[in-house]
Amino acid sequence: VKKYYQLQRLHPAGLHADWADKLHDQLYVSEHTQSTHEHYLQVVLTTIEPQGGHKGSAYDAYEYTAHSHSFLSDQVPSVRVTFDLSPIQILVREISKPWYHFLTTTCAIIGGVFTVAGLLDALLYNSIKMVRKVNLGKQT
């Protein structure tokens, strides 16, 4: 006998329903009558501070990773949902790069191209010089 269940609403009170999007409307099938389905959610609070916004414009978002698996048990079939709330908070600040960052990056790229071109030129020059010596019989 196959049994099915579907997660409709899985989020703590006060959080928006979109928070449950990873497990929302997922269909889980029990192949055996004593199947247990376990869902493990690791939750991290992320605070985002937009660029140029004042202190009150920051907003919080809960990000999570969901792991699900099924196994046979000797007990009544069940669904277990475990939340692991992380003590660590992620803080994302949007900042702009200063104008001179573009200038220094451009100079670094030009300098790198110049250096590689110089190395290739020296390698090619010395290779041609050695081939000419070998052709003239002056190579020792």
TrEMBL record:
Pfam families: COPIIcoated_ERV. PANTHER family: ENDOPLASMIC RETICULUM-GOLGI INTERMEDIATE COMPARTMENT PROTEIN, PROTEIN DISULFIDE-ISOMERASE 5-3. One of its GO terms (cellular component) is endoplasmic reticulum. InterPro entries: Erv, Erv_C. The keyword Transmembrane applies. It comes from Chlamydomonas leiostraca. The keyword Transcription does not apply. Residues 30-121 form the Endoplasmic reticulum vesicle transporter C-terminal domain. Keywords: Membrane, Transmembrane, Transmembrane helix. This is Endoplasmic reticulum vesicle transporter C-terminal domain-containing protein. The chain crosses the membrane at residues 99-124.
